[in-house]
Amino acid sequence: MKIKKNNSDNLAIPGKPMSQKKFASMIKEAEGGAFYSLEESKKHFQEWKSQSKK
User: Whole-prediction pTM value?
Assistant: First the structure.
C-alpha cells in the first residue's frame, strides 16, 4: 500500500485554523480509503515490523 505524500498541510502545527469545507473533504477522502479488520491490521503490522528489522 502506497501513501500519498503530496499533502503540504502540516496538521501537527497548532494555531492554523482549518475551514469546515477542508475538514469535510479530508474526512470524505479518508472514508474512501482501505479499511482492515483488527486481525488484518495486526497481520500487516507484523509484516511491516519483520521487514523493518532487516
Answer: 0.45
